Amino acid sequence: MTRCDGWSGGWRPAAVVFDCDGLLMDTEPCWTVAEREVFARRGLPFGVEQKELVIGRSIEQVGVAIAGHLGEPAAARSLSAELLGLVTEVVTRQAQAMAGAHALVELVRNAVPVAVASNSPRALLDAALARGGFAGTFGVSVAADEVAEPKPAPDMYLTACRRLGVDPAHTLAFEDSATGTRSARAAGVRVVGVPSLPDRPLDADLVVGSLLDPELTAWIGTWTGSWTGSWTGSWTGSRP
Questions:
Q1: What is the pLDDT of residues 5-46, one digit of tens each?
Q2: N or C terminus of the chain with fewer C-beta within 10 Å?
Q3: 15-26+97-221: which CATH number, 3.20.20.70, 3.40.50.1000, 2.40.50.140, 2.30.110.10?
Q4: Residue percentage of the chain with pLDDT more than 90
């Protein structure tokens, strides 16, 4: 990580909103299993190009994307339903919490209110949180089927901030995908990016390799005390 002064002067969030899939929960392999099966049923390969097509999107958006890729736009709804059934089964059976997720969430919860905002529908979000041991952790949670437009629209973050009672400008998001990062930025929320595809950079304010990043946890540890130093990290934004 390179030194920067992007958040020097004492900025810290009044609340934090976490993404779920690929950020708190290692569900991307589960999604990949389900997505690969959808393609395999049609005799088609599934690789990096196809994964980039769907990562971070809501189940409806994924259905539209796959249908377009297959040249079958009318099949979007049925593809979404097929994929949702497959991924729910896999998540419920084998999804695990990301390394460092529980410790980081607890560290943040000790300092500021927290929420989770996921592009998964409510049933799948609850299944993932329960499987990972996060049930009851978040007083505020927002699912894709509870807003007018899912990520990358700002609705999910604006809804989470409203329910938390905080200004988006005073809120920090944790995201792993470009879709989620765009959503947070559109809502005026600062973003820590933890890329689930390491070779695909995120347009986040701060980018770290994992939730275990020691400088990240050290910075969060200052939120409950007086802050006199400067953050050192990979600053990519221009906000003060």
A1: 345 457 899 999 999 999 999 988 898 899 899 999 988 898
A2: C
A3: 3.40.50.1000
A4: 67
Structure-block tokens of residue 221: 């540890």
Read off the tokens for 161.
């901030």
Exposure string for 88-109, b = 16+ CB within 10 A, e = fewer: bebbeeebebbebbbebbebbe
Structure tokens at 146: 């509870």
Domain ranges of the chain: 15-26+97-221, 28-94
Measure the CA–CA gap between 219 and 237, rounded to whole angstroms: 18
Do 70 and 106 meet the contact criterion of CB atoms below 8 Å apart?
Answer: no
Phi, psi of 140 (to 5 degrees): -125, 130
